[in-house]
Amino acid sequence: MSSGGGAGLYLHVPFCSAVCPYCDFAVVPADASRSARYVQALLTELALLGEEELSFDTIYFGGGTPSALSRADLESILAAARRSLAVEDDAWLALEANPEDVDAAALEGWRGLGVNMLSLGVQSFQAEELRFLGRRHSAAEGERAVREALTAGFDIVSVDLIFGLPGQEPENLRDSIRRLAELDPQHVSCYQLTVHEGTPFHRRRQQGRLLELGESSQGELFELVHSELEAAGYSAYEVSNFAKTEDARSLHNQKYWDHSSYLGAGLAAHSFSGRRRWWNEPDLERYCSRLERGERPLAGGEELDSSELALEAVMLGLRRSRGLDLDRLRADYGLNLLERNAAIIESYVEDGLAVVDGRLRLTPRGLAVADAVVRSLDLDPA
Ligand code: SF4
To answer: 16 in ligand 1 pocket by Cβ < 6 Å?
Structure first.
């Protein structure tokens, strides 16, 4: 399999059987005719991407719910990508799936496509929490899906969990993590619930019907996630991502954190290369109709300057266990981070939040407050 030095290709599938009340991804409720039209549009978009000079060694089907598409649709999308773009023969392939879509036939189909990493949107093993999150599967279905996926023999089965729900008891979170650890998937992604503007949760919060957990409870749950997963043999290679071994890390996601090039195809998909970022039309009707006219569905783009890129590099680098490459930061963006922030970084080291050893790394305690650490730093390259 490829070593992960090329670009990543992201393929967006925007359909979900129902839209979860916390979701702010580009998603729409699934229906057969919409989905057929979308797949055609995506195939056209891929055909129009032929002039790209990048070569790809990872492909990620994300959503939405890629598992909502048939194997034939997924296969034709992959074939179209391979026809238009320089995709390595042994490109690493990931696919997101919801537990309710997992059965023997689906697993066999995804294995047949060459999926290396199957990422399951389990989110919790507590009935009450799954109901609150608007999920369509039960805790037992989540467990069954993970078990069957592991038996099917993917290189990596990844399980997504969400923590920090309003009123969440540490005991319930601990129980979910322990049930997950018993299943023993190779990879775990554990994200804190965020209330995004425009979502039903946001409206409930504005009406006073959803009370978020306070900062100290969030911090306590964050530490619980890290200590429980670590005790179960998972190491955090990024603040929200845990793997049993180095081989079980997501090759594709590491490209986002590295500032490597990636190309996104599909509704609202984002792309990045060099200093340039661009993105697709987020409206499904416009996305499809522009492609039906033979037009690329671009909605915008920007050229990032050194200080914007440096800020991103610091934010992304400090969320990773390997930390931030200080030499690369200086060489790429002219920012000598240690010199500009000597006193504050020294105080973080003294307080056990950070370590400097050629790189700048946050300790587990530092990771819990990573965003505040980034905000406190002077990132002006001048
Ligand atoms: S399943 Fe995932 S992508 Fe679909 S609505 Fe729920 S959170 Fe969003």
So the answer is: yes
